User: Which sequence fits this backbone?
């Protein structure tokens, strides 16, 4: 059975149309990266090779959201089975709450070496290539190497966020450890302008070494030596032993059944379970129409309740007091559903921060499909670039708590609550396809809205992405996009919601979708209208 779509959602159409193809498709937030993935497909690679090529290319052509020094997660559909890969790195073994507090911090800092955790992205590329890839990793990384070495012109959305990050970093980054960031990403003393060529030979050399050694140099070789030496020289906790000990983990994806479809996510430490908990609450309600106050009210309330549970329980699974199965049980969903009242409630979790991430989806003509997400967190991450490598390190450790009683309390060797989540949809044991919405704590909220737009309201992939979004912030505060129906916003205020209209669309995530018709094999894709998104296909 295939998805049945109504006509394009007229009030919210963009200039993009749904894309159809048969032999292969790559959807992501940057046209050059999408084309790189397609080129690999045309060279004989499969959807897994294309995903790796696209991800590596995104570290070059969208460094405002991800880098070689970030984390990654993947859901891979191949030969009738869904596989999950968790390539998020732990905190360095030598870090501790006491040590961070002794250094003068009352909470985990955003920038510098302290929030740096072991990068997982290069290991994800190598492991995906080893297990499911068809072409050599060095060949798959070649498009990214070429763009880093020869340069590319800055695209509009990229240029906007690059300038914003540079302006902030000029004000808040002060210290030797940040010098390499400015040398790498602001070589002329400013952010590169839209249309200007930017390149990084160090980045190219690092990607080549990762490809040539199948990732070994990054964790147990020359690149690991450079990272460890920079950490030691600049007061960091990351050591060569931390890097050498890291291995990505194959995990069993988790799911909820939602109106006949199975919605899949990576299990904790990722926050995908928050999206599933919200859908588990919402499946007990009936929604006659998308554009009603009751629909939005119930969505927002379910999301708040799911976040309350997520922030209370989700962390490194070895440190969780409950299981994913318990959180996703029908009984627990019913219990949370009964907490949805007629007016807005105030849930328990604290204020969600913003995030920076890239998401991509790939598919090939053989039925392989990949949902892949990669991030440095909060844009450029920690502000630390390892000298001579182009490796911009993530600041994922910022999410750790310095309260030893908190479930997500900092500990050496522990993985933190993780915001980046790939999604996947199946029906009756057959792949429907990958989907994702990047953007910090917006991600599970985007997943819920895209899934409901697709299943409940029969919107095609492009319309499902284009429809105006809402985002719960904290307490009763909810942001909505400018295209959100204002009469419904006013009625939500009457229910106790504190509605704020956001003029900046970048706050609401950036998504991609590829659906596959199981009868014909035809691929149908949508890409984000809120960024430089593109679909490459053939």
Assistant:
């Amino acid at each position: 059975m295939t998805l049945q779509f109504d006509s394009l959602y007229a009030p919210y159409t963009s200039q993009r149309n749904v894309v159809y193809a048969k032999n292969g498709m790559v959807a992501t937030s940057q046209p050059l990266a999408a084309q790189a993935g397609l080129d690999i497909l045309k060279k004989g690679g499969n959807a897994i090779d294309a995903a790796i090529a696209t991800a590596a290319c995104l570290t070059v052509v969208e460094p405002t959201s991800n880098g070689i020094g970030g984390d990654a997660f993947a859901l891979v559909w191949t030969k009738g089975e869904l596989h999950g890969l968790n390539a998020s790195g732990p905190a360095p073994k030598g870090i501790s709450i006491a040590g961070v507090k002794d250094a003068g911090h009352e909470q985990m800092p955003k920038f510098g070496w302290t929030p740096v955790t072991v990068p997982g992205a290069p290991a994800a590329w190598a492991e995906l290539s080893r297990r499911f890839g068809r072409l050599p990793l060095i060949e798959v990384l070649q498009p990214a190497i070429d763009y880093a070495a020869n340069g590319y012109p800055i695209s509009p959305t990229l240029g906007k966020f690059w300038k914003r990050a540079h302006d902030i970093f000029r004000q808040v980054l002060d210290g030797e450890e940040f010098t390499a960031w400015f040398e790498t990403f602001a070589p002329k003393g400013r952010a590169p302008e839209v249309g200007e060529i930017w390149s990084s030979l160090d980045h190219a050399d690092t990607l080549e070494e990762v490809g040539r050694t199948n990732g070994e140099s990054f964790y147990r070789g020359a690149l690991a030596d450079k990272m460890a030496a920079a950490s030691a020289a600049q007061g960091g906790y990351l050591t060569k032993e931390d890097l050498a000990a890291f291995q990505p983990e194959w995990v069993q994806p988790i799911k909820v059944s939602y109106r006949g479809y199975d919605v899949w996510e990576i299990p904790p430490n990722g926050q995908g379970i928050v999206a599933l908990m919200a859908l588990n609450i919402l499946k007990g309600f009936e929604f006659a129409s998308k554009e009603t106050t009751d629909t939005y009210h119930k969505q927002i309330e379910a999301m708040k309740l799911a976040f309350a549970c997520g922030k209370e329980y989700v962390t490194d699974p070895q440190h969780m007091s409950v299981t994913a199965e318990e959180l996703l049980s029908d009984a627990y969903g019913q219990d949370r559903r009964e907490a949805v009242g007629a007016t807005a409630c105030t849930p328990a979790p604290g204020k969600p921060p913003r995030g920076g991430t890239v998401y991509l989806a790939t598919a090939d003509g053989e039925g392989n499909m990949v949902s892949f997400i990669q991030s440095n967190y909060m844009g450029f991450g920690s502000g630390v670039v390892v000298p001579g490598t182009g490796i911009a390190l993530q600041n994922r450790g910022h999410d750790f708590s310095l309260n030893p009683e908190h479930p997500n309390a900092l500990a050496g060797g522990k993985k933190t609550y993780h915001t980046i989540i790939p999604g996947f949809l199946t029906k009756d044991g057959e792949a429907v396809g990958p989907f994702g919405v990047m953007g910090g704590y917006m991600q599970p909220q985007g997943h819920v809205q895209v899934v409901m737009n697709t299943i409940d309201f029969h919107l095609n992939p492009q319309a499902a992405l284009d429809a105006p979004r809402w985002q719960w912030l904290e307490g009763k505060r909810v942001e909505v996009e400018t295209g959100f129906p204002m009469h419904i916003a006013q009625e939500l205020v009457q229910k106790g919601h504190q509605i704020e209209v956001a003029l900046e669309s970048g706050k609401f995530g950036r998504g991609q979708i590829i659906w596959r018709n199981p009868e014909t094999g035809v691929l149908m894709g949508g890409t984000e209208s809120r960024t430089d998104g593109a679909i490459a296909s053939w």
